[in-house]
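Project standup — Tuesday

K.O.: blocked on the structure for the chain from last sprint. Re-posting the sequence here as requested.
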Amino acid sequence: MIKVTEVESFPPNSNPYHHDAFNMGTKIASNVTIMHPSFEFQRTGIIYVVNTETGERVMIEFVPQEEMGFGGLTLKPDDNASRTR
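H.V.: unblocked you, prediction finished:
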């Protein structure tokens, strides 16, 4: 299952590597970078999608279905109000 959570934004039009020194990144579009803590040959459970123009970020977690408790995609904004798609 996939869990998507909004996380604190970076400043607009900033370099994501200046704000996240832990993760590596892959630029997939002129305005989108995927930040990831692992190399391509390693497994990971979390990636971050960053809109480098707006600074908005989401965390995507790959969670085993038994930990999710249901079969859906969960969006959880910063204010902790949950929406399900």
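K.O.: great, moving the ticket to review. Residues 2-84 form one domain. The longest strand covers residues 2-7.
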